[in-house]
Amino acid sequence: MNPTQRKYRATFILDNRGKEESIDQIVDGVKQVISEVKGEVTGVENLGRRDFVRVTDKKLTGATYVHIDFSGPASAPAGLHDKLRLNHSVYRTFVRSA
Fold it and tell me: Which residues, at least 6 apart from 52, have a Cβ–Cβ distance to it below 8 Å?
């Protein structure tokens, strides 16, 4: 690994209500966005569908959670948030250093 690369773990809450895309297709799209921000995916873990503890939308009481481990530059998390901001299949994104 390059010394300027950092390791990250991102948690994505995916929403495919009313869409023809499967969860795997959405994850492939997220992996493509990670590569666009110069990141390299090292692992994917699908946690399955979980109910929300605090419901903000009565029509969406739960969604699919996915962990993606990746390495990338320090600017990768901000770039990832910017690129996924308008993607309605990704309901929430949480990125932390691993």
Answer: 60, 61, 62, 63
